Every structure is written in structure tokens, then in C-alpha cells.
Amino acid sequence: MTSVFEYRGVKIERIVHAAFRIEGGGVVVYVDPYQIPSPRLDGDVVVCTHDHFDHCSPSDINKVAKPGAVIVAPPNCEAKLRRLKFEYKPIKVGETITVSGVKITAVPAYNTDKPFHPKEYGGIGAIIEIGGLRVYHAGDTDFIPEMGQLGPIDVALLPVSGTYVMTAEDAAKAAEVIKPKIAIPMHYSAIVGSEADAQRFKRLLEGKIEVVVI
Description:
Blueprint: E1 3-7, E2 10-16, E3 19-24, E4 27-31, E5 43-47, H1 58-64, E6 65-73, H2 78-81, E7 87-90, E8 96-99, E9 102-108, E10 124-130, E11 133-137, E12 155-159, H3 168-178, E13 182-186, H4 195-204, E14 210-211
Parallel strand pairs: 4-5, 5-6, 6-7, 11-12, 12-13, 13-14
Antiparallel strand pairs: 1-2, 2-3, 3-4, 8-9, 9-10, 10-11
């Protein structure tokens, strides 16, 4: 089941796990499409945060990207993406690419106390500027110092499941540093984590930051 949250004219849909559809200003962006139930073929831009199967899935990209779509992803995704029929634009931490009027900035995403996403691996988080909003998709990450340097964020999509990413407790600490207007938990209910993690994240931020569970 999917849910859609609309904020200042931008529609944000959490599909499953860390997969999102973001629509604003007449443009559709998918981030980390995964377990897409049926073809949609409406995506102008697809962003993948790293090459793990649940974040860079060629079969799922083919279900969401329309003809002429552009895929933006770090170099560790290249081997998978070069086989597809879509234009691929590589992006590294610190770089910004504008596609279909949407500005995408790659920011750090890595583990601090786990082996799954080392800093040198080159995974990214993404700040997506669309429809007048700055939406931050954190990718697979722990709570890292760079989160305090993102600038103003309207909506932050933050992993909460633990194991491969930060826990709900650390995600709440991250949200307090990032100070988004809205925080949306992600990375649960598919491979690891459950809605209980999302609800715990929401309780931890009660009275501090508005949390929307979708």
C-alpha cells in the first residue's frame, strides 16, 4: 500500500522501504524505486542513492521511468545503469546536477559504526529542489556530522530501522540537527524495521518537529 502526503503543492509518496515518488512543478522524480507493484512510466528523473539491490534496481527503474527519463546516481551504480536505455548522469558527493528544472545535490551518506556503507563506498544522500521545496532523501546512512551543514530543508526523508542505517533514536537526533519543517521516516517494513520504528521516531520528536508517517 502506498500513501501520499502533499506539502505546499508538492506530492510526496512513499512506495515502500526507501522508495519515493515526488511530484512538483509538473515534474516527477523517483528516488530508489523498489518493489514497484505495477508499471507507472511517469518518471522524468530517477535518483538512486547507491548500488545495493533495494536502492538501485534496474527492473524497478524500468517500471517508473518514462521514455527520455534521466537517471542520476553515484558511480557505484554505473555498471547496473549503463545497461538501461535511459540517459545516465553520474553524481558524486558535493556535486549538483539540474535535470528537467529539478536541482539535485549529492550529500554524504555513510555508516559510522557498521560495515555496510563505508564513506569510501561513495553512496549519497540527495537534496532535491522541486516545486519550490528542498527535499532531503538521506539514503542509507547513520547520523553524521555533515547533516548539520545541509542548509534549510523543507522535508527530510530519514531512515529509522537500524541494522543497516540509523535507529529511530539517532534519526530523531538527526532531525533535531537538520531542523526540517516536516520529517518523514523511511527504510522500514520491507527488508528490516517496522512501522513501530516509524511511530517511535514520531513520538521522540513530538512537540519539536512535525513528523508525517506515510
